[in-house]
Specification:
The complex is a heteropentamer, with two copies of chain A (about 250 residues), one copy of chain B (about 240 residues) and two copies of chain C (about 220 residues). By secondary structure, chain A is of the alpha/beta class. Chain A is built from nine helices and ten strands. Helices cover about 35% and strands about 25% of the residues of chain B. Chain B starts with 9 loop residues before the first helix and ends in a 7-residue tail after the last helix. The chains are: A alpha/beta (about 250), B alpha/beta (about 240), C mainly alpha (about 220). Chains B and C meet through helix 3, strand 11 and helix 6 of B and helix 7 and helix 8 of C. Bound molecules: adenosine-5'-triphosphate (ATP) (2 copies) and magnesium ion (2 copies). The site of one magnesium ion has 4 residues of chain A, from helix 1. Chains C, D: Its main location: membrane.
């Protein structure tokens, strides 16, 4: 459903993404892993056009966009079909947890307030926040904020959700819960791209692993092949460090 | 500016300083204004200089907005205000006035084509404009007009010319001065007051000013008698406003 | 203070307050309401990517901030009649004060919008909202809270700036005062009196400001 | 336009510009510099937990914003002499304009400081900085950037408000213009001329504002 | 070196921390774990007085503070001796990465600029940011920001460092690196309190584990006892969920 070709992104003189190609099929759960600063967030931002790529082509279903020439209308169209969970959450500071979730439903999707509240509460319940509907972001703990961000993205039931480290602020129990939420979504046929540092998580629900380093996709493969038979040296090295962490 | 203590005779203070601080607007031709060379001139200014001369001191002029003249006089910043001030009963309660040094008549000025105003009685229900610092509003009101005020004379003329008001009340001499600058202006005098009002110099009401008052009164009389004042009037107004 | 002065002050109180109620306050409220709408509009124009709208907004702010209010009153009231446009004093004053305050306020609002982290806008995009929707529902509520004290400044200034309307024949509080001064020659006392009346009006506004500020307190 | 008018306008140009250079501009610059320092100080006072300092700052802002500039000039210049305090026109004007602008600007600065997330202050505490140190090095640099357009507003307003100094015998541009009007009875043309000169001064300031704004652009 | 007794903290009607007692000895590395919203961040904030506790007593070395009556001077004193890594980083937005680190050295510790820069660069190097000295926070990726925050806290060489989820935004490789930085600090005798969701990490360098839930310390023990012989049911349940996550 999503095809990226030759995406390039620079900041000033630094090339942050060098000729990225990525194929995502319907119902795929693509896990992007890679060291800090390798460009994972930037890639997600380029996909839903929050960042302007310098060049590249994006196929979304059968629509083709040249990434250096997207119009406002294109952006709006793509964004209505995608959800995004920011690494830094970016909750609306002037809205309660529930309002954060319903805002998009009411305004962008023209849903009635009652219906939106219903869905909003449902989404918040899913991520274990039934006690926090009326809290403002600054009154929420880090993990609670992250969960509101997740609830906000899944409430609109988009065709594609981009998650940027969705469990970074969560404890193991909750990670487990969120994981099952994402698994449910996967079961419902949602396509997802998930940036994560949690390999267990990646292994568990990913259908495909993409390993990035220094703005490049080093290796992309299905989960088992990736973890059991990595091809590139850089990948091996990365996987090794994970095991190192584990040994007490 | 003058620095003075309140418990000393004003005349003596002036003589000790060797200067007479006179406040005036400097923006009201031909009484007190700046000529093309930017020098402060006018009937009032010349009078001030003559008075200082006769007192044997130097005239120092300070210019400020109209209401500030009196605030400064009250605060003791200035010795005198010479600014074509008309004597009224109400003002007499605040200040002591010297001998009048001129008289003025108030004119009703209208647009040339205006046919409805020929006397002050005709002001009934009419829209008039006048400068704020004047007594004209009271006068117009007393004849049943509806006065509005603006800051200066030119504005009142604009209002008449653009038809926003029916008439403006102003000093007859101001009208002539305006006409001198704008010979083609489509305005005329519709009526004049029969009684003239008198122009004088206000002084703070207290015993310290008494000797100065006497001195100035003497000087004004002298200037009137010698014809110097009439000469000045002719020079600035083109008429003699000193002797009625 | 002598008896005469006290009498003058008492006598003049209503003569000053009445034009305050009938002119200064309505003129301020009407002009300010229009000004805020205008300012929002201009701030938006300054922030779009459309070069032409940008330039128009900048030009407007430049001209209006660059020239004295008095001159603007002159142009509208004494200048336009030359072009055959004769506007009554009150609407003329509203036009000028709204245009003037709007230009200043647009800068304040623009600055406040720029103070909102970009993430707020981006989060709005990501739930499918359009830029205007995000502005109205997410960014402006936060920005206006930041701009609020400065906008209060401009409202409180406007209360007093309306006195310039006397230049176009509008009888407001200061003109009423000056009329009394012209008669009584008591500028200092009367200016203090009118100052006190202004203070009363502005006290109400300041109280309102503080009230609204704490009601809409934003924490982050 | 007829020849006479053109001549008047040319002739008056320097008569207006000179007091602009010798009075309007110096008065603005000096008063504004003091005002900003004062405003910073007052904004801080309003934000400490010390109730007394708080009240003092609030009182100051309330009184100054609540009364017209004209009345403030009157009190300092014509009122204080009754208490034996006689201040020369220029220093009196500086005092009044600085006090006045300072009150307004303090509200703007306070609002801008409140717009900075608390985390910035807390991070400062955690590296062992004192509140004043954090203010000066972390919070104010960010806050002033937000306040900047509103402070420009107040500077540009001040340029024109200094014309009120004519009430305390200071010859500035507007008074110079009015002198010429008194002689020539050409208010409209001359007000437009002085408006243009103000516009030139303010254009320089606006350009400077935009330049500094983009130099100190903050992104987050 | 640090002793907390009976710390209570409420927000409005909600009691967030209920009578917390905590003992930290010199050179301890205390790991605080617990579900999202259990009050971990709030506890850290109460310790270095960013949050005002409603009651409680804090012993710092031999100085005793009543937490509801601390003065500005007390705060400054405690904060000069502690470092803090915020969950949301809170980098100074108007300072570069390097300036973020040197600010406290130059201003609070009156160090010369050269010396501060030297130490600052050293600290940034330690967390793998030698390429990013002059980047502003908004130009850094999430993981890079987090590392700047860590560098800032350790640069001042305080006696006690409070870390709030210091590896949440880090990939496994970097987690490993930061881990070794923290291990080095521990070796140097630094006392630390670390909130974390990474059990491997906790096991590896913790000397003591504190498990919190709903504003209470459920169980506190040394690492091996805690993980191998948990006493409370709630603890057991929590540990179980961790193992659940692991099974693919
Ligand atoms: N200002 C506030 N007003 C009301 N409640 C608050 C406020 N700040 C925090 N809370 C509540 O206090 C509780 C504890 O928050 P805290 O940030 O300490 O949790 P935490 O253990 O750090 O969680 P996480 O692992 O998600 O970061 C949360 O339930 C939160 O909603
Ligand atoms: N505005 C910017 N200007 C310059 N460089 C930038 C900017 N934004 C990001 N970068 C750089 O781009 C690189 C990639 O950043 P990105 O946020 O995509 O990394 P990431 O893979 O998401 O890392 P992390 O796992 O730490 O979140 C980083 O090295 C960062 O410093
Ligand atoms: Mg990232
Ligand atoms: Mg936390």
């Amino acid at each position: 459903m999503l095809k990226i070709k030759n995406l390039r992104k620079t900041f000033g003189n630094n090339t942050i993404l060098k000729s990225i190609d990525l194929d995502v099929n319907k119902k795929d759960v693509v896990m992007i892993i890679g060291p800090s600063g390798s460009g994972k967030t930037t890639l997600l931002r380029c996909i839903n056009l929050l960042a302007h790529a310098d060049s590249g082509i994006l196929n979304f279903d059968d629509e083709v966009y040249e990434l250096d020439k997207v119009t406002k209308k294109d952006s709006l169209k793509i964004r209505k079909r995608t959800g995004f969970v920011f690494q830094s959450f970016n909750l609306f500071r002037n809205k309660t947890a529930l309002q954060n979730v319903t805002e998009g439903l009411i305004v962008a999707r023209k849903m009635s307030k009652e219906k939106a509240n219903e869905i909003g509460k449902e989404s918040l319940d899913k991520v274990g926040l039934s006690q926090r509907y009326d809290y403002y972001p600054h009154e929420l703990s880090g993990g609670q904020q992250q969960r509101v961000a997740i609830a906000r993205a899944i409430a609109t039931k988009p065709e594609l959700i981009l998650f940027d480290e969705p469990t970074s602020a969560l404890d193991p129990e909750l990670t487990h819960e969120v994981l099952s939420v994402i698994q449910d979504l996967a079961a419902e046929g949602m396509t997802m791209i998930i940036v994560t540092h949690e390999m267990e998580f990646a292994k568990k629900i990913g259908t495909k692993i993409v390993f990035m380093d220094q703005g490049e996709i080093i290796e992309a493969n299905d989960v088992t092949t990736f973890f059991n038979h990595p091809k590139e040296n850089r990948t091996k090295q990365f996987l090794q460090s994970i095991n190192q962490n584990k040994t007490v | 500016t003058a620095k003075q203590s309140n418990d000393m005779d004003l005349l003596r203070q002036i003589q000790e300083k060797g200067e007479l601080v006179i406040a005036t607007e400097g923006t009201w031709a031909p009484w007190t204004y700046h000529n093309q060379d930017d020098q402060l001139v006018g009937f009032d200014v010349e009078l001030g200089k003559l008075i200082a001369d006769k007192l044997g001191v130097e005239a120092v002029f300070v210019e400020a907005e109209w209401d500030s003249l009196f605030a400064g006089l009250d605060a003791g910043r200035y010795d005198l205000v010479i600014n074509g001030v008309e004597i009224t009963d109400e003002r007499k309660e605040k200040y002591d006035f010297t001998e009048p040094y001129a008289y003025i008549k108030t004119a009703i000025i209208v647009e040339n084509s205006n046919d409805s105003i020929h006397s002050f009685e005709d002001l009934e229900g009419k829209q008039t404009a006048n400068t704020l610092a004047s007594t004209y509003a009271t006068l117009a009101e007393s004849y049943g007009a509806n006065p509005t005020g603006v800051d200066d004379l030119s504005q009142t003329m604009e209002l008449v010319l653009s038809g926003r008001v029916d008439a403006t009340l102003n000093a007859e001499v101001s009208y002539y001065d305006y006409i001198k600058e704008h010979p083609n202006a489509s305005i005329k005098i519709a009526a004049l007051t029969t009684d003239a009002s008198f122009v004088s110099i206000p002084l703070r009401k207290n015993e310290n000013t008494e000797s100065l008052m006497n001195e100035i009164n003497k000087i004004i009389m002298e200037l009137k008698e010698s014809g110097e004042l009439s000469e000045l009037s002719n020079q600035y107004f083109g008429v003699d406003l000193v002797n009625q | 203070m002598n008896e005469r002065l006290i009498e003058i002050l008492i006598d003049s109180f209503w003569k000053i307050v009445v034009p305050g109620l009938t002119m200064t306050i309505p003129l301020t409220i009407i002009s300010f309401s229009i000004a805020i709408l205008l300012a929002l509009f201009i701030a938006m124009m300054q922030m779009t990517n459309n070069k032409i709208l940008n330039q128009i907004a900048r030009f407007y702010v430049w001209i209006i901030r660059g020239t004295p209010l008095l001159v603007q009153l002159y142009v509208i009231f004494y200048g336009l009649p030359n072009l055959g446009i004769l506007i009554d004093p009150f609407p003329a004053a509203v036009i000028v004060f709204a245009l003037n305050t709007g230009a200043y306020d647009s800068e304040t609002i623009r600055a406040a919008i720029e103070a909102i982290p970009k993430g707020q806008l981006e989060a709005g995009y990501c739930v499918g909202m359009t830029t205007p929707q995000i502005m109205i529902r997410i960014v402006l509520p936060q920005a206006l809270r930041i701009a609020f004290p400065s906008l209060s400044n401009s409202l409180i200034s406007l209360v007093k700036d309306t006195s310039l309307a006397s230049n176009i024949t509008i009888l407001e509080m200061l003109m009423a005062t000056q009329r009394i001064i012209a008669r009584t020659y008591e500028p200092f006392a009367l200016y203090c009196e009118v100052g006190l009346i202004y203070l009363i009006i502005c006290t109400v506004l300041t109280k309102l400001q503080h009230k609204l500020e704490s009601t809409f307190k934003l924490e982050y």
